[in-house]
Amino acid sequence: MKFKDYYKILGVSKNASDAEIKKAYRKLARKYHPDVNPNDKEAEKKFKEINEANEVLGNPENRKKYDKYGEHWKHAEEYEKAQQQQRQYQHAGGQQYYSGGFTEDDFSDFFSSMFGGGFGGGGFSSAGNRNVKFRGQDFHAELQLNLSDVYKTQKHTINVNGKKIRLTIPAGVENGQEIKIKGYGGEGINGGPKGDLYIKFNIRNDTPFKRDGSNLYLNVDLDLYKAVLGGEIIINTLDGKVKLKVKPETQNGTKVKLKGKGFPVYKQEGKFGDLLLTYTIKIPTNLSEKEKALFKELAKLR
Amino acid sequence: MDTKDIISIHRFCSLYNVPATFVNELDDFELIELIDLENEKYIRKSNLKDLERIIHLRFDLNINPEGIDVIHHLLQRISQMQEEINELRNRLALYE
Fold first, then answer.
1. Which among A39, A130, A217 is the nearest to B16, CB-wise?
2. Where does A210-301 sit in CATH, by number?
3. If you average pLDDT over each of A218-232, B4-18, B51-65, which comes out highest?
4. Of A138, A227, B8, B61, which sits 20 to 30 A from A90 (CA to CA)?
């Protein structure tokens, strides 16, 4: 468990006045509040840190204890016992905390070890302050999938906070896409509506294709002789093997479009993008003397 | 309208411990849509998430309604831009 320098977190000196601490905290809270930094995990982390720092430095009793023990907080138990009565009195009023859906669980292990849990006026969502909850909490989850998995509509069962949720993931879902499942968040209070469940998809490409929306791209190596004389090749698409004719005198970099052999279009059943092939012509290497002679002969003919 | 989808301003203000004048202020700035029903004003429960955010901005960060209006628009733009960034990132994978 690492020691936390709360003064450094709030950017104030060790002899900062209460007013200076309050000012620094308010300034940082405005900067990192989750409601002005949506989907920013770094800001969320910072916001938790500054709230924790304020919980300690913004409370004279906590600050005294922190200043006294600092890095040696593990020996603070005796002090804790001696001050217990006084502390109970001082915390009865509670403090003004910025909310934003945080709970006491968001405090660090260092904080819990030094100050214990469950005090401090109830943390961020105490019944005594303004933020009485009515609507349930939103849950956020991330789901890792392979690109080959989302080629077809999938049924998944996920576990969110001990609750099993059956999900249908439509084919063609995008990497980084977030879907909202209404009413699958936390329970509302006092008859309030349930929160929502947000699932973000992280899609790993386990195929040789590159994807742009519903179109797929593939580089295909073509040997020189097939490119010059023409022939047939077999392409493995996500839909199975496709036999393809190669025209004689095919140039390097030639693009071929296979209509409807791309990726499914999200929420448009039966509709697919295209597969776009780019030929890369491979020049033979390690030529034998006979081959070299034949190429020389060919060159003379041009 | 199904009354289970709406909440009266009176109840909302008491649950969230905010003054009624705050809701009227938001209405004036067209930050929320109020529903008139039998001489009482209501809020859609589906708007509660946005309203909770507005409450945090107003009372936690001391931002006035004009500021909330600006932030509201900027957040919408951020959301659009995040979607666009994600789309462009996915497209960039084509060239990597």
1. A130
2. 2.60.260.20
3. A218-232
4. B61
DSSP single-letter state for residue A126: -
- CA B39 to chain A, closest CA, distance in angstroms equals 23
Among A11-25, A70-84, B21-35, name the one with the lowest average pLDDT: A70-84
User: SS3 for B32-90, per residue?
Assistant: CCEEEECCEEEEEHHHHHHHHHHHHHHHHCCCCHHHHHHHHHHHHHHHHHHHHHHHHHH
Contact B55, B24 (CB under 8 A): no
Please name the fold of domain B3-95.
Answer: Multidrug-efflux Transporter Regulator; Chain: A; Domain 2 (1.10.1660)
Closest among A283, A269, A148, A161 to A222, alpha carbons compared: A283
Q: Report the SS3 class of residue B8.
A: strand
Report the pLDDT value the prediction gives residue A120, as an integer from 0 to 100.
44
From B52's Cα to the closest Cα of chain A, the distance in A is 9
**Which residues in chain B are contacts of A192 at CB distance < 8 A?**
15, 45, 48
